[in-house]
Amino acid sequence: MRYKILVSTLLVLFLLTGISAAAKPTITADRTYFDINTGLYVLNGNVYIQVGNRVITAGQAKVNPATLEVWAAGGITVTQDDIYFTGNSVYVYGTKDRATIDGGVNLSRDGLSITADNAEFNWHSKIADFKGNVQVTQNGNSWSADSASYNVKTNCFL
């Protein structure tokens, strides 16, 4: 039963991340189970998800295999190449290739740091929309705004 839960969770998270079939996901947590009352896979304690070069960590996570939604909380991080997101929680809309990160969001990469109250990221367009108390430091220059949109692929603000 535990093996089926882990394989199903890996499949759902693989679909959510949009990584090619060649990448083998690695998922670990202190406790993993399927909640038959809610239909959610539940991961607790030291959640670690790696697909290709993308790594997601959290204190806890829930996955809905029917809707491809993921809720994670407890000091989340998302790392890919030189991009590093942190926040308090993340909600992934798997079928829409979008994620919402809340609570002290920070995006950092070489020469750039962006902090905000929350952010929405679109894996398809590679655009991150930051809202609320946005602070940007880029190559030694700093500025602030109520909101900012940043394309991680082209490394520029829109």
Describe the structure.
This protein is mainly beta. It folds into two domains: 1-69, no CATH class; 81-158, lipopolysaccharide transport protein A fold, CATH 2.60.450.10. The chain is built from one helix and eleven strands. Strands 1, 2, 3, 4, 5, 6, 7, 8, 9, 10 and 11 form an eleven-stranded antiparallel beta sheet that branches. β10 (141-151) and β11 form a beta hairpin.
Total count of strands: 11
Give the number of helices: 1
For this structure, the CATH topology of the largest domain is: lipopolysaccharide transport protein A fold
Q: What is the molecular shape?
A: elongated
N- to C-terminal separation? Answer: 48 Å
In total, the number of domains comes to: 2
The amount of beta strand, in percent, is over 45%
Main pleated sheet: 11 strands, antiparallel
Q: At the first level of CATH, what is the class of the largest domain?
A: Mainly Beta
Class per helix and strand makeup: mainly beta
Compute the gyration radius: what is it? 16 Å
Helix content: 10-25%
What's the average pLDDT? 81
CATH architecture of the largest domain: Sandwich
Please, what is the CATH homologous superfamily of the largest domain?
A: Lipopolysaccharide (LPS) transport protein A like domain
Q: Give me the strand/helix succession.
A: HEEEEEEEEEEE
Weakly predicted, low-confidence segments:
2-15, 18-23
